[in-house]
Amino acid sequence: MGNSGNEDSKRSRAVAPAAAKQDLSGIGAAFAPAMIGALLSRIFNWSRSGVGPRLLAAVLLFSSVVTLVLTALQLYLDYNREVGVIETRLDEIGRSTTGSLGESLWNLDQNQLRLLLDGILRLPDIRAAEVREIADRPNPIRVAVGEPNTRSIVTRDYPLTTTMQGAVRTIGVLHVEATLSEVYQQLMNRALIILASQAAKTFLVSLFIIYMFHLLVTRHLVAIADFVSKYNLARPPPALHLERRPTYDPDELDKVVVAFNAMCANLERAYDELREANANLERDLKIRRSAEEDARASEQRFRDYAETASDWFWETGPDHRFTYISERAGAFGMAHKALIGKRRIDAAFDRDAEPEKWRAHVAMLDRHEPFRKFEYRGRDASGRVRHFSVNGQPVFASDGRFMGYRGSATDLTAQHETEERLRQSQKMDAIGQLTGGVAHDFNNVLTVITGTIEIIQEGLADRPQFAAIAQLIDDAATRGAEITSQLLTFARRQPLEPREIDVNALVLETAKLLKPILGEHVEIVTRLADDAWSAMVDPSQLSSAIVNLAVNARDAMPGGGRLTLETANRELDGTEGADEGDVVRGAFVMVAVSDTGHGIPADIRERVFEPFFTTKGVGRGTGLGLSMVYGFARQTGGTVAIESEEGRGTVVRLFLPRSEGEAPARTAPVHALAAARGHETILVVEDDPLVQGYVIAQLGSLGYRTLAAGDGASALALVDQGAKFDLLFTDIIMPGGMNGRELAEAVRLRRPGVKVLYTSGYTDDTIVHEGHLDPGVALLQKPYRKSELSEKIREVLAGEPAA
Fold it and tell me: pTM (2 decimals)?
């Protein structure tokens, strides 16, 4: 390394004289282009890299800027001085020549004017002069000498005057132009001289600075860089030493050399320590790699469990906010990334509904206790309410510090929905059973009341005050019968007599009935499909369903609105109805009833088909209208769907099974029936004494002979005794272990061909299957009036309606 520095020094000493000679020869032949070009090329190649070019550029740039600024300032001062001299000269011309020029102009002596102007033109820097007469006459005098210019000039205009009768009068103008061209040329020559001398001085000074910087600094920096670049810790070289003349005191380079040598010694010691540390580190790395592989295997095992488990896993921090939720939660519709940073209570749907439960849960979390099977409700990414069950275990650091919770979560939504459907089904079955029992007894009572009221009304025809009271009782009994019928329809216990009907014709007939019911403030619009199929339904029940929907729509439009009745053909493939379990497929005729009312709130929309549920005030509804429609649609073999939005109205769609027949029956208006009389003998089997007495009395008033029995066994005893009768009129639900259907079959075994008419206020599966009466079965629904009794008896006895 020391030899290297010596060689650099010798090389610099060998080059310096040649460079000096070239500099001297360059100075001696300053204007030799070839020598200057060679010198510049040599300098450029020598200083293409390193500190030299930057130092040279900085010196040249700074010197050039200073030179230019000083030159510009000197030229500016010279310019002002020269221009001042010219302006002084022009002012002197104005003071010395205007009098004589004015006198010559007054005398109209143009020769004298030209001589005076030529004298002015001979002055330095004056290029043109002109005298113009100011006079109101043709061809005023104008004398000009010199060559006027438009650039780089200074001009002056002096008035020429004369004195007339003591008054000064302007008779002309003297115009003088002085050029600045010579001033600019002098300034340019001066600038070139200054710049050339300054450039030469700057260049020589810069070269000297570069040479001295190289001699004192850069060659030693190169030696230091070469030592550092070739330094090898495995085979350390001798200490760094620079070949330079000794100085009186150590300078910066000496301090750098000492620092480098000290650093190299430290590096050698550190290298030995590093080799020992590397050996230890290699052993530690092997242990760490093994631990990392075990950790990765454990993590992968956990991920496999987390992604294949039916549950998902979660973690929370000390503030109970989620820090991790496994991707398995996405399979249940949860936006697991959106839950990061939130607390469980923030994502809960039931925190306001069950505040005590959540307060207890949060208190347990604050106590850092484990928990199991904590159930709550939340919403998934689509907004659907879901049920969750979570287990959690607190996590503590090695120093006992609480770190948060880890646990698992289970989606119980399907289980809850199944349980809810089961509870709903059980509730509906219980209501159906209750409805049947109530209807059976209530219809027996209503049968006696309606029949007795008819007799009372006939006897009070001449007493209007009491007749009005009897009419009120009759109306109340009729209303009770309607409520009972609605209950039976909802419970799907109302026997239907379906037949092929023209749905469009029935809707039009029902629309006529709706006009007086709804009032003039409700507009009725029909949109009926021209190709609507025929449907297999009970026309009276369908008409009642439409009326119920229309009345509900009217109540939803207290200020008036539009009711739309619509029909259309629909092919359904797994369409869900009002109940999630209602999945229907096939061809259906749709009857839609829509209104422009206030709509149904979303939180009660799922309950509108429940019996006795109503949003109307007390006394304004029984809550059976929509439940009757739902029961009728399901018993018919179709379904019902509802769509509603608050403020935009409601649409209820009935889907009725399509009839395969070709000629649908048209509904005819119902006319009041007259009581038909007869003379046949009728065996009346009725377990309720009140109903039995009423029937016997009514049949007697119609001319029939009657035999009576309270149960099936008593009726069979009469048959076995040889009692003669033309018609068996029997209740279906009776005590004693024998129902009406079993009694009729037993009687027909004894007397084949006997005619049977059933009556009941509630039908089970005795004569009704899938909601429809068995073929060939005649039924008279309780409660019934005298005219309905006589008409039905004549139908069964004669095989045709009574006249």
Answer: 0.37
Task: For helices 33-46 and 2-28, give the axis angle rounded to 10 degrees.
Answer: 160
Higher pLDDT, 682 or 610: 682
CB 525 within 8 A of CB 565: yes
User: Residue 221's pLDDT band (boundaries 50, 70, 90)?
Assistant: confident
| Contacts of the segment 248-257: beta carbons below 8 A, 24+ positions apart | 253/217, 253/220, 256/224, 257/224
712: helix, strand or coil: helix
pLDDT recorded at residue 803: 30
Joined together, the tokens standing for residue 728 give 């068996």
Count of beta carbons in the 10 Å neighbourhood of residue 627: 25
H/E segment holding residue 259 = helix 252-308
Helix, strand counts (H, E) of the chain: 18, 23
- Number of Cβ within 10 Å of residue 61's Cβ equals 10
Tokens encoding 483: 């409520």
Instruction: State which H helix or E strand residue 586 sits in.
Output: strand 583-594
Please compute the mean of the pLDDT values over residues 232-258 and round it to a whole number: 74
Query: CA-CA distance, 320 to 745, in Å (whole number)?
Result: 74
Q: Give 60-94 as a DSSP string.
A: HHHHHHHHHHHHHHHHHHHHHHHHHHHHHHHHHHH
Residue 608 pLDDT more than 70?
no
**Tens of pLDDT along 133-162?**
888 778 888 888 888 877 788 888 889 888
pLDDT at res. 476:
63
CA-CA distance, 710 to 712, in Å (whole number)?
Answer: 7
Helix segments in 107-231, DSSP class H: 110-121, 181-213, 219-229
Residue 131 backbone dihedrals phi, psi, to 5 degrees: -120, 125
List Cα–Cα distances, 188 to 86, 167, 192, in angstroms: 18, 50, 6
Of 387, 433, 448, the residue nearest 414 (C-alpha)? 387
Q: Which domains does the chain have, with CATH numbers?
A: 51-230 (3.30.450), 310-492 (3.30.450.20), 498-576+585-661 (3.30.565.10), 681-798 (3.40.50.2300)
Task: Output the six-digit token pair for 278.
Answer: 């590397």
